[in-house]
Amino acid sequence: MSVLASLIVASLLGVQQSAPEIELRSTPLTLNNYGLYTVETSIGRQVLFSGDPEADPVPFIVDTAASHTAVPRLIAQQLVDNALISLDDIGHGLTGQFDTSLIFVDQLDFGLGPREVEVAVFEDAYGSVMSAAGLLGANAFPDEAIQIDFPSQRLTLLDSAFTNGSQDLWIRNGLIMGEANIRGVDEPVLVLVDTGATASIVNTALLEARNGSVRVGDNSVSGVSGPTAQAEMRKWFSRFQLDNLCIRLFEITVSDVYAFDHHGWSDQPAIILGMDVLKDAMITVDYATGHVAMDGTDRYACSGRRDLVSLNQ
Questions:
Q1: Do domains 19-157 and 169-300 have the same CATH topology?
Q2: What is the pLDDT of residues 180-226, one digit of tens each?
Q3: Distance (Å, rounded) from C-alpha 70 to C-alpha 313?
């Protein structure tokens, strides 16, 4: 989900490193009950979270579709000694706009060293639903290069610039976007890489680019802006390729959620790529250079494409 997306938003690979060196620069990821990966994060003080009045650290969801790190109001109030926080700005999420404000956290540490981070505040519902104390967005990695290795469950800070990015992927306003190919769709499919989304969603423009039968039912899509009832259609797609991530066949929800319109994609085939797919991927991103690469593992690796190396192998 895009938090303040506009606020009014290795081949590294190839470098061999010892396990102790990797350990110093990486931190473990934990899969929660919602299929999202979290990292244990200290926010400078103990807070009330999940019934524990002295929680520290607390889990933050790693969210590549969030420009800003974000916390629910319940957590934010504790960070400012219960001073009044007025949500006077507008943020943009998966399912709609939401009220927000910004605070500063000067000791945010998710295992790769403390840093000062501008944090967006949102209402509490999403944090409660997703069993996390917040979202770790792009501004948590200022001018840094990282590797998110979901199969190995590690978040690694790279010690040098990443220059082997893909032409199919880029960073816009801190968000990872790109263009993919899907069999039967003649034009490139726009992609938002969203590690904070439990499941992938395509828009009806992509559906209209292909003919096929659908199953229709009711569904509720949740985001920072809250749950939104959607008409759900399920459709099978084949031969999806984004950089070095290839999927032969998968079933996906078709729904015109707010994020497609916000990014100007309503009339273009587009997909929000969630963790149902990304759980088998490794993402390398350099927020300083804008270079991004994505690699599928095992059955999701593309044949004949370059071989990138996980730093955690």
A1: yes
A2: 999 888 899 999 999 999 999 999 999 888 764 444 444 444 444 44
A3: 31
Residue 13 CA to residue 110 CA, distance in Å, equals 23
CATH for the stretch 169-300: 2.40.70.10
Q: Which amino acid is at 39?
A: V
Superfamily of domain 19-157: Acid Proteases (2.40.70.10)
pLDDT digits (tens, 9 = 90+) for 3-13: 443 333 333 33
55 pLDDT more than 50 = yes
**Tokens 């790109």 label which residue?**
178
Cβ–Cβ < 8 Å for 32, 50: no
Residue range 77-111, pLDDT digits in tens: 999 987 888 888 888 888 888 889 999 999 899 99
Note the pTM of the prediction, 2 decimals: 0.83
Q: If 0-12 CB within 10 Å is exposed, 13-18 middle and 19+ buried, where does residue 215 land?
A: exposed
- Return the domain boundaries, the chain: 19-157, 169-300
Residue 188 — φ and ψ, nearest 5°?
Answer: -60, 145
